[in-house]
Every structure is written in C-alpha cells, then in structure tokens.
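Section 5: illustrative case.
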C-alpha cells in the first residue's frame, strides 16, 4: 500500500468561499453535509491501495479536532511549511518509496479514481493526474477550468500526484520557485524553458511528450495519467464549483439507492 498526503492548508489572503461562514479554513467547509476533508479521507481510506494518511496544514490541530475524522484508522496530522513544495519535501519517505499526494478540496475523489491513477503512475518517478477538456465538457459543459493547451488536447489538473521518494527533491525545489503561478498555465510551461513554451504554443507535441521531456531535465521519468472520469478535475475553488459538486453528490446518492435522477 502507498502512503498518502492530503494538502489541507490555506493560501495567503482571504478566501471568498469562507466569507460569512464562521469557518477559519477551507478544508472544514461543509459540502453535502460533511467537511471537504472528510470526503477526501473517506475516499482514500476506502481504497485498498492506500496505507497511512497524513494531513498537512498550517494548523493541523484544528483539523484533528474535527469529530468525523476521529473514526478513521491510520490518519495522522502534521503542521506544514510555508509552501506546498517545502511541505512535501519534508514529508517524502526515505529512499525510493512512492507517495500519493492529493488536496482537501478534491471532494469528488473516489477509490476508483485512486486506482486508475496509481495504475497509470506505477513505473514513473513523477506522475500527474489530468483530465482532457472533451471528457469534462461532455458531462459538465458549465464547468470552468484552467487549461493547458497542447497538440491533441487541452488538459486540466486532477489534484493527484505521484512522487517517488527523495529523487524528486530537485523538482520540488524548482516548483517552490514557481508555485505562486500554479493557475497560470503558460507561466508554468515557460518556467521549464523556451523549448517547452514554443512547443506548446505551436502545438508541436502532446502534453505527455512535453511532461516527459520536462522530467528529463531533472533526471526523472515523468508522465501524465489521463483520467477517464470528468469529476476527477472538479475541485472546490469557487462558489460555482460548490454548486456543481453539491449536484453531483445528490446524483450519487440517488444512484446509490436506485432512484431515478
């Protein structure tokens, strides 16, 4: 089984999702009757592929006090560093053991998604889950995402990452310098060099080819794992996301009890 990290910290500045809610951190924002973080931990704990779960946040004690998290086995809490990259660097296992990373706002996560991602990532050093635009829009045309445009498709991140031990440290150090631009697709691409930026702008290669070449810069085997479920890239970033996620959860509940949608 693979250990998992859930990034549950808060970004600098006010979060419009929390305005007037009386909640200090996004991870505890209720969706479909449960805190975001509870949905994520529940999905991970239900996966036979996932081992111990560590929740990272600036003030992890606040999350540890959430009553619904008390019933899960092998769940731990730790205070994070100043950024995602430094927090992950501190949490990496020794040697080449792999680590699964996801986020507290990935509330639609399921064990099936976890299995699909880990199967696709198994022989890589670094892997990133992504959803192609046609997959998302076929189900949820109203959903607005940030897209990376390459030959053969437009892609959006699905908040799952596979890191193989300490060998990924140079990549995390690099990410620490650019993570503030994580929502600006072209800035992220450009940070890897002019060859990747020009190739993306001119659609000279697929995203799989681009990520593989970017990984080689750090001596890593890197890959994209295309996710087959549109819900894999719908996270809770803005009010419209919350509304859509609530509808998806309602549909899941109806399907589970055999009622027509």
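Designed sequence:
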């Amino acid at each position: 089984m693979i250990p998992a990290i859930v990034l549950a910290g808060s970004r600098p500045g006010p979060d419009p999702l929390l305005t007037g809610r009386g909640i200090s951190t996004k991870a505890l924002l209720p969706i479909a009757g449960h805190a975001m973080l509870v949905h994520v931990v529940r999905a991970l704990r239900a996966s036979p592929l996932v081992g111990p779960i560590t929740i990272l946040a600036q003030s992890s004690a606040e999350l540890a006090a959430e009553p619904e998290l008390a019933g899960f086995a092998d769940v731990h809490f730790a205070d994070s560093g100043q950024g995602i990259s430094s927090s992950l660097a501190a949490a990496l296992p020794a040697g080449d053991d792999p680590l699964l990373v996801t986020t507290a706002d990935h509330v639609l996560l399921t064990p099936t998604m976890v299995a699909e991602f880990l199967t696709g990532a198994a022989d890589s050093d670094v892997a990133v889950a992504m959803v192609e635009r046609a997959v998302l829009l076929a189900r949820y045309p109203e959903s607005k995402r940030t897209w990376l445009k390459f030959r053969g498709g437009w892609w959006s991140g699905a908040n799952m990452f596979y890191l193989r031990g300490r060998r990924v440290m140079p990549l995390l150090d690099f990410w620490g310098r650019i993570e503030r631009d994580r929502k600006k697709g072209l800035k992220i691409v450009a940070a890897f060099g002019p060859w990747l930026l020009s190739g993306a702008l001119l659609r000279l290669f697929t995203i799989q080819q681009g990520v593989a070449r970017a990984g080689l810069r750090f001596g890593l085997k890197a890959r994209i794992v295309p996710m087959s479920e549109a819900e894999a890239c719908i996270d809770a970033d803005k009010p419209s996301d919350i509304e859509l996620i609530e509808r998806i959860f309602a549909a899941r509940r109806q399907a589970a009890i055999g009622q027509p949608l």
